[in-house]
Amino acid sequence: MFKLISNEQEKMKVMNYFYFSTALQMCAVIGTVAAPLTLYSVELGLDSDKIGILGSLMAFCQVLAVISIPVTIYFGSKLVSISALFTRYIFLLIFLIVPFYKDNVTLVFSLLFFSMLMFSIFRSLSEAAFVPWMQEFIPRDVRGRIIGVNGIICTPFALAASYVIKIWLDSRVGLDRFYPVFILAIITGLISALLLIKIQGEKKILNRENDRGYLKNLFSASKDKNFNLFLLSSGTQYLVITVLAIFLTLFFKIRMNIPTGELIFSSTLILIGGTCSGFIVGRITDNYGCRGIRVIFQTLQILLLLILPFINSETPHLSYIIGIIFFLFGFLMWGSESIGYIFMLNYVPSNNKESFMSLAYSLDGLIAGVTTILAGYLILWLDTNNIIFFGKTLGSYEVLFVICAFMIAVSMNAFILIKEEGAMGVRTFLRQLIFSRRQIL
Question: What architecture (CATH level 2) is domain 214-441?
C-alpha cells in the first residue's frame, strides 16, 4: 500500500526505520511532556501560571537552534540529532523523584523546570539537526508522499497510546500511577533514537564548498528575500495554529459548556485531519509544487475562522459540528504546515541548509512561545474592553478568530509571492483541480 518508487531507491530501503522511530517518538511525547505532565503538575499542587511556564519552555528553546548550527556542522547532523534525541529523555527521569518533595512546592517546580528546560534544549538541538538530515536521507522526488505516509503510520500509534494512558490514569489514584506511564514512555523515546542509527547521514564537515563561516552563512540566509517571505508565511501560519490549539477548545468549553470528555474525544480529530491532509498534499506537492494547494488550504482556513463566531450553544447538531471543526482544523492548518515544511526541504541550498532551517525553526519557536503566554492576556483584555462593530458588541473569542483570519491572509499573500522552481501557478492549478481531478490526485 505504501510502496513508493523513487530515483534513489537505496534510500527507500531504510524508510521503515524513519517511520517507526517517528511513531515511537510521538508515543513518548504523549506519555511524558503532553497531558500527563499537566495532570502530574496539578496533582503536585502547582498553580496554572507555573504550569504555563513549563509548557512554554519547549517553544522558547527553539530559538537555540540558531546557535546550534556550529555544533551540527562540526559533528554532523546524524550524530547530533540522535545523541540529543536520546539525551533529552534521560532528563525526564527527574519526574520520578519529584513526589518525594511534594510538600515543598517551590522545590517541585524547580525540579520540573530544570527537567523540562534540559529536555527542551536537547529537543531543540535534535530537531534543528534532524531537518537538514532529512534533506539527505529522504529522496527529493517522493518527499511529500513520505511525509504523508509517515503521518498515516504515526496516527494509530498516537491514538492507541492516548487511549491506553487515559484508561490507566482514570482507573487509578495517587501520584505513583504516573510512574509506569513515564517509565514506558521514556524507554520508548530511547528506542526511537536508536532506530535512527540505521539511517545513513552526513558526518563531520571539515571543508564545505563555498563555506563562509557560521555568522556569514546565517547572515546569507537572513538576506534571502524569497526565504524571508517564507519565514513570514510560516511564522503567521504557526502563530494561528498555536493560538487555536489553546483557545478553540476553551471557546467550546467556556462559551458552550461542552463536557471535558467530549472535547478530549473531539480533539483527536485534529490528528486524524492532519494525517489525511498530509497524504493528499504530499502527492500533490511532489507533482505540482506547493503554492496552489497551500493557497487553497489557507483560503478555506479564513472561511472557517470567519464562520466560528456564528456558532453558539443553540446551533443545531452542535456536537457533530464541533467534531467537523476539529477535523477541518487539523486538515487545513496542519496540511498547510506540511506544505511549508516540504517547500523548505526542497528550497534550502544543501551547502547552507543548517542556517536556513535553524532560522525557520527558531523563528517559529519564538512566535509560539510568545503567543502561548500573550494569548491569555489578549483574551482577558478583550473580555474587559468591548469592541463595537456595526452596532454589535463582539466577544473576546470572536475578535480573536477574526484576528487569526487576518493573519492567515497575511501568510497566504506572502506565500503567493514566493518564487518556487517548477511550481504551477495558482490559476493553472485551480483549472487542473476543476477539470482534471484524477490527474491531480
Answer: Up-down Bundle (1.20)
